[in-house]
Amino acid sequence: MRILFLTLICLYTAFGAEITLKDGNTLYGEIVTEDENAVVIDGIFGTKRSSIRCERKDIASIKPGHVPKGYFDDVSPERDESTAKHDYLLVPIHGVFGEDVHAAAIKKIMIYAKRHRLKHIVFDINMDEDGDLDEAIACIQQVIKYKKGLTIHASVHQALGNSIGLLVLADNIYVYEKTVIGGLFPTPMEQEDPSYMTARHALGMKAAQFAQDHGKGGQVIRAMVDPEMRLTAWFNNEQKIEMSSEEVPAMAAEQTVFRCEPGTLLQLNKDQLQSLGAPSIKDVSEINTHLNLPRWVGTDVYAKKVIAQIAESENKRKNSTNKLTERKIEKCLSRREQINEALQHNILMASQWDPSKASYSTYQASWSYNRRLNNGRRRYVGNNDVYGTYDTRQMTQDSKNRWRQHSDITAKYLSEAKKSIKSMKDIEKKTERLGIERLYTEVKLKQMYDDIHTKHEFIVKNRNRKEM
Questions:
Q1: Helix, coil or strand: residue 340
Q2: Contact indicator for 146, 114 with CB cutoff of 8 Å
Q3: 88-94 and 120-127: which strand pairing?
Q4: Do the beta carbons of residue 158 and residue 177 sit within 8 Å?
């Protein structure tokens, strides 16, 4: 149902929609955005063009429709002073995903640009770290979701690691004197996380495929994310770029654009990027020299404000979450220590009270026989009788009571030890989710439980033992 709803919303977003509310009112226009709780529609309400948020619970139906040509021509959207006289929105993508740049900010910026009929967005990118992978993916998804009808430009100072994904979505890329674009190897800690490495590789391959499908140098992007990729680019005799993923013989330095060998990730500087067709600029205001638009005036006021506000809000939330996590970690470690102490104590006491380690008394019996026989019959004649005693191995009553007592106590400690192992399994799962190294592996805990369970069953079965 959720997938169906999103599919319908995408249809309405492209062609317009008519929203009928449960109170009988009808709204007509273009759907700007939606989520599970609400739909935002852009339309003419009164004499002004504006956007209205409709709670999902208040919506009776949504019908597709076409916004007539010129529907919005006679009205202007509600604009603030920062966008009233501007043609593009300048968005600073600086710092690190998940710390300085968040998907929530990108979403607001993309919606804001569409709502205020700004046709161009310039991402000014300066990132030299991978940052948070999930946040990077979320940012890219927001651009994909709202880029229709917008021209995306990327003015790049540095775009290393995950920020390559934004470049793939750009319609135009511009470089500066010290621009560097390329891949970054994961840190040793990241390499030890299989799920992270899988997600990272998937993002890189999707970016490369997207670039390939849209004629944006898929091989180049792949060489930036796949260390097994070999790629060489050079000028042929006609001064046109040629590329090959096969091994290429050495050639003159002035003929070679770049050479990326297996085991490395491609990084390109300004000269190499210019050779591949990226225009060079000194400031975003120069972008229009390549676009030839009647006017090229931009603003970064809204984007800066939103990025800063959401970064501050997210960092506060993270700090609060971190404190909560620290308390959870402290609580889990304390609880795990208590459980482990109880487990070790129960195992030790079960060993000390093991009934097989105690001393017991048994009944003794006497015997005798006469060595003289008279006509095949036994005769008891004086010193010819032989006497002795032997161990019946039958436990005395006191010993049987002691055995039962030791068995009961041992069984109790073993039973408590099994409970401790079950508790340890639960707490180990919680601590592992918090990123804490396990004290016991799952295999070790199972082995311990099976051993103790077998011992417990044996003790209970032999509680009423009578013989040694």
A1: helix
A2: yes
A3: parallel
A4: no
